[in-house]
Design brief:
With 232 residues, this protein is mainly α. The chain has one domain: Up-down Bundle (Four Helix Bundle (Hemerythrin (Met), subunit A)).
Length: 232
């Protein structure tokens, strides 16, 4: 199925809005929870997600400065900060003339420029998967429509595999075994997440009891030097 730039931007917006709704449900006590992104707490994951929004927004304007991709100092309301970063990237992708631009993406490759539709597809698949990451961390589920999951699967299948996934700083881990009939599980497994990942119950933190969040259309723990931010 041929996807235009406008089609990809619309799908990306659905994935981003899903992530915003999920992040808004996180409580302060949740920020220390581990996530499916091996070494990241939820706080670190949200910080990374916001940084990627700002980086892609800059790229849409032709700004390839790597500093645009660095996590920002968190404010008192991580949910509000995250929403603002999401609104910034969605506005940037919808700006006049963006469809014809080449995006500099220093977090992905130094030097090359990427056609707009392809660049937005990178962002799109990141936020399908990161929505799943946040949902699993919170003990929730995320639901996307078949109309979104079909293109997301195609993008996931196009991500290079093999030895490239083992290199330091690789965007995704090697694919893992997958079973069942869930398209979203298939996507996250292709991109190195275990669909069977369950959050550990931490002492003193409430259990959500598997509440489900219906969505439109879904690593690194803090250390003394701050948050390290890989590409996805």
């Amino acid at each position: 199925m041929h996807m235009t730039f406008g089609d990809m931007v619309a799908l990306d917006a659905l994935a981003v809005h899903a992530s915003v709704e999920l992040v808004a449900r996180a409580q302060p006590a949740d920020m220390a929870r581990p996530t499916p992104c091996a070494d990241w707490t939820l706080h670190g994951l949200i910080s990374h997600m916001a940084a990627q929004h700002h980086g892609f927004a800059a790229a849409a304007a032709g700004d390839g400065d790597p500093a645009r991709w660095r996590p920002r100092r968190p404010g008192s309301d991580p949910g509000a900060d995250y929403r603002a970063s999401a609104e910034a990237v969605l506005a940037a992708f919808s700006a006049p003339g963006v469809a014809d631009r080449q995006f500099p993406l220093p977090e992905f490759a130094a030097g090359p420029l990427f056609p707009a539709r392809r660049a937005v597809s990178f962002h799109f698949i990141d936020y399908v998967v990161h929505s799943w990451d946040v949902a699993r961390t919170l003990g929730l589920e995320v639901h996307f429509t078949p109309e979104l999951l079909g293109p997301a699967l195609a993008v996931a299948q196009a991500v290079p595999g093999g030895e490239a996934r083992l290199a330091p700083g690789s965007a995704f881990a090697p694919a893992v075994a997958w079973h069942g009939c869930s398209p979203l599980d298939r996507i996250v497994a292709i991109l190195g997440r275990s669909p069977d990942w369950k959050r550990p119950q931490l002492p003193g933190l409430p259990c959500r009891g598997g509440r489900t969040a219906a969505m439109p259309g879904s690593t690194r723990r803090q250390n003394d030097s701050g948050w390290r931010c890989p590409r996805s």
